[in-house]
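We store chain and fold; example below:
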Amino acid sequence: MISINISEFDDYDRESIYEFVTLQEEMNYEIIIPKVIVATDDPPHAVFWQYSTAAYAGHLLNDVSSSFGYLVPSANKKDYFKFDAKIKDIAKFADLLYLITAVYFAVHETDEIRKFTNDATDYFGDAFDSIPYPSTSGLIFIARAYLD
């Protein structure tokens, strides 16, 4: 399994990420998204945003995977979001990895980031009407607990 902490890719462009993932012989990935907001120190809306955004990122990772799992970290600890995925479409995975990295580390908002944010909001809003539950329901439930 190849472990990727997205903070290590913050200065990669789309082509560099694509090159990295296509050079790997492994299709099993552990994707780590740092969790910098802690419920005991930060406002509830910040915790909500962090969990709902991670939930949507996980949902998108699930879509490019043949096997998927994730860790639900405590809202009260500085930790990380961890997603395990067996990738079935490496090109889509590379694009997604670039997008997730851009969402978390971009200095300027782009149309692509704005779309991700809007889609994440829609994903959260639709999550409770979804049967079966969405692929990242554990993160959605924590996000909901911090919704103002």
Remarks:
- The beta strands are 2-5, 28-35, 65-71, 79-87.
- The first strand starts at residue 2 and ends at 5.
- Helices lie at 14-23, 44-63, 90-105, 111-127, 137-145.
- The chain has five helices and four strands.
